[in-house]
Amino acid sequence: MLPEILSVAELNRLARSLIEREFPLLWIAGEVSNLTRAPSGHWYFTLKDADAQVRCAMFRSRAQSVSWRLENGQQVEARALVTLYEARGEFQLNVEALRRAGLGKLYEAFLRLKEKLAADGLFAEERKRALPRFPRRIGIVTSPRAAALRDVLVTLGRRAPTLPCVVYPTLVQGAEAAGQIADAIRVAGERSECDLLLLVRGGGSLEDLWSFNEEAVARAVAACPIPVIAGIGHETDLTIADLAADRRAPTPTAAAELASAGWFEAAAETAQFGVALRSGMRASLERRMQRVDLLARRLVHPAERLARSRQRLDHLASRLTGAADRLAASRQGRMADLRLRLARARPNLERQRTLLAALAAGLTALNPQAALARGYALVRTPDGELVRSHRQLAEGMALRLRFAEGGANALVSKIIPD
Fold this sequence. Notes:
20% strand; rod-shaped; alpha/beta; Rossmann fold; five-stranded mixed beta barrel; CATH 2.40.50.140; 418 residues; 3 domains
């Protein structure tokens, strides 16, 4: 139940609640006029057509998302919340998003073409080719005056300065751009002078990028015999050409980085290898220098070596002389000892002669021959036994007699006992 009397504020509050409840977010088309950009960053303008107008407010947080410059006289489409500004009781739109008029139809066309080409298999992952890790030459399809070309060349010059590039010039915006882009892609494929192709353009609105949403461009990209990297617009921009390409990069610069990744990584690895090689060579050189220092300490000047050799020779000569002297002294002592022993062992010849004469006289006295010479005789039995007793004899026994000169045989005729 409403009270009998409402304040203006209460009325406007009720009206605002009713309006916002009855009208959801919706798109409204019209022409921009009375545009004001407040220091706070909010935009205020009027949206009108031939028969009516409505005040609009677009707050800073929403205005910052508009990528193009809003101007009076532009035909736009605003996604807005219908409301009432209570303080003034003014009917207005709180704008959430803006796009140029006709973009809704373009987006619908984008979706229809995307669905059609997807059904034809142009976006299938299995048909997309791997990018060469070390491309020998890179082709660039873009406008020669585009900032995107400068960004690509600067990036390639920084990451792979020796990698040659070929530019296939084309328009990238306007009614004739799609046909030229498709022709440039076909020319690059027919020439086959590059092994990787970049399709690039800087950022812009959906209308600005629409050439890359044409079917002719998408089919030229899919039919190109060279792997294609698409780097169109900003990261948030998505075109049909991006979907048809073998690889999508968020920006032209990113496309150049992706194309040169192999060479850039190889250069980094080569630099690392160079550092490791220099470090290894330095360590090896230091080891050899240390070895040289060690050998230098062991290296002796020839004069010093000769002096040492002379000193050693003198020492050896001294040792040899001492050894010879000691050997001579030892042998002289040995000789004296032998003389002494010889002197002790030498016989007394006078005494030995006297003794020898006595022995000779004794032998002479015992010599049987001497006894025989004195008239004795040696008697032997037939067996040769010397007869010393009559008991050895028998009558009739033959005996042999030996005299000092000659001998005789005899027979025992009679035995005479003692």
